[in-house]
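Format notes (please read before filing issues)

Several people have asked whether sequences and structure tokens are stored in separate files. They are not. Every record keeps both together, in the order shown below: the sequence lines, then the token lines. Line labels are part of the format and must not be stripped during preprocessing.
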Amino acid sequence: MGQVIEYAESADSNLDQFSPKKGSFDENSFNFTLSQAKPVHTEVLIASATFKTGENAGMPVPLNCTWYNMTAQSEIQTSEAPANSDFVQIPLATGACYQPSSEDIGLKVMVHAIPASDADEYEGMPMFAEVGPLEEDPEVSEAVREVVEN
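Then the structure lines:
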């Protein structure tokens, strides 16, 4: 089975809690998931969220996403390189899906997702998730090796 990272909180709320009139979503309003079939560079990463309660329970929550690369050792902080210096925004990666490339091999990939209305009138509590470090897909590696050798 593929790798699924799920963040869920107990919900004691209703749809009024995240209506545009009331302000924004909070972490109790939805379930957030970052999924990938295998931790290899050829598998698409998908960030998704669904409403927990109310008339829209189970329906998707629109997300504004920003994707980052980070070194596998970014949690180790030194005086020369603070932990946050290891985050590099991936250019033009702003949707709910990200297709890693060979440049992502050996790195963790993180998504920063913010729930938003379709009209971008309001935003909610930011969510973060990461996968990796990503490995080279063995099938692709073998195919490249065969081409180079012939």
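For reference, the curators noted about this record: The chain has one domain: 3-149. The chain has one helix and eight strands.
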